[in-house]
Amino acid sequence: MKNQKKLRIEDLGEFGFIARFSRDFLKRLPAGVTGIGDDCAVIPWKGRKKLLVTTDLLIDGVHFLKERISARDLGYKSLAVNLSDIAAMGGSPRWAFLSIAIPAETEVSWLDEFFRGWRQLAARTGVELLGGDTTKSRAGLVINVAVLGEADGTHIKYRSSARPGDIVAVTDNLGDSEGGLRLILRGEEKSRTKPEGKYLISRHYRPHPHLEEGRFLAGQPEVRAMMDVSDGIDSDLRRIMERSGCGVMVFLEQLPISPALKKCAGRFNWNLEEVAAAGGEDYCLLLTVAPEKFTGLAEKFFRRFGRPLPAIGQITDEKGQLRYFRNGHQVVLEKSGYDHFKHG
Ligand code: ADP
Ligand code: MG
């Protein structure tokens, strides 16, 4: 109709768009295959073993700033973000494919450094590069990585298994990566001279995929749903709510925040709750646990990893309701998590 504005992807948002096209594809899947909607696709393989597949796209100006990030860190991070999705299923990464579109003027030494960063993490995690594609780009650097991994089928954790009453927990502090990004965007890389600045920036550039934690947690029957924190818990909890048909209460005073982030937030007047709940790219794990087993699990986790397993909330039966509380009072969080088409 004339004058009627056509629906744009920015109106739907990233997740509205995925929901719109994926329905049709999900209907056709054979039994036992998990397709669109979790951190990895899960495909039946050898006996109890399942094949895990995940892919991520990184674009200059959207996911990184080529002029700021070192080639070595970018090589490391391109692989790390994919390994984090394997960790979220409780799997072990094995093989990778790397496709790059490169502006013609890119220096070969820059690419050598990119592969150095990649190899550092690949060697440590046992991932072999098996293929990919290389082309020229007329519009900046574009990187696509796909990783295949394996998992014991009886131990895989999905986003869809949360139940009302479950305790929601995370495997690390929240907001460090967003803090690091804010320092970088403020041109505060000189903050690297201060230990807290250096720490936050390294948390942004060199996220640590929680592979060991993922495998350990996947082996615990009391862990119900699990995913990795890539867009910030505000956005990621909504994915668990959609897949599990539930709601969540988050207790803001329980969000684990590093001393470094507290220090920088004080200096630059950041809203700590917003940074911790809506900041992306922490790449730790977000899980839900049967409530009566949570204390025991947190103790086991502490014995194994030497750090706590902070509880940050609880699953409710209020479908689609993500509610925040501060010291027992419900509050509205100022900002929601990252959506590619809803943020500039
Ligand atoms: P993650 O952050 O763990 O990579 P997302 O939450 O971004 O996952 O994506 C949700 C789901 O949508 C995933 O299963 C992902 O594979 C799928 N997905 C995203 N974009 C596309 C696409 N263009 N085509 C098919 N599946 C997609
Ligand atoms: Mg993920």
Automatic annotation (TrEMBL):
Pfam families recorded: AIRS (PF00586), AIRS_C (PF02769)
Residues engaged in binding Mg(2+) 5: 231
InterPro entries: PurM-like_C_dom, PurM-like_C_sf, PurM-like_N, PurM-like_N_sf, ThiL-like
Domain PurM-like C-terminal: 163-320
CDD domains reported in the protein's UniProt record: ThiL (cd02194)
One GO BP: thiamine diphosphate biosynthetic process
Sites where the protein binds Mg(2+) 1: 55-56, 133
Pathway per the UniProt entry: Cofactor biosynthesis; thiamine diphosphate biosynthesis; thiamine diphosphate from thiamine phosphate: step 1/1
Annotated Mg(2+) 2 binding sites: 56, 85
Binding site residues for ATP: 132-133, 159, 230
Binding site for Mg(2+) 3: 39, 85, 228
Function: Catalyzes the ATP-dependent phosphorylation of thiamine-monophosphate (TMP) to form thiamine-pyrophosphate (TPP), the active form of vitamin B1.
NCBIfam families to which the protein is assigned, alphabetical: thiL
Recorded family membership: Belongs to the thiamine-monophosphate kinase family.
HAMAP family given in the database record: TMP_kinase (MF_02128)
Protein name: Thiamine-monophosphate kinase
Organism listed in the record: Candidatus Saccharicenans subterraneus
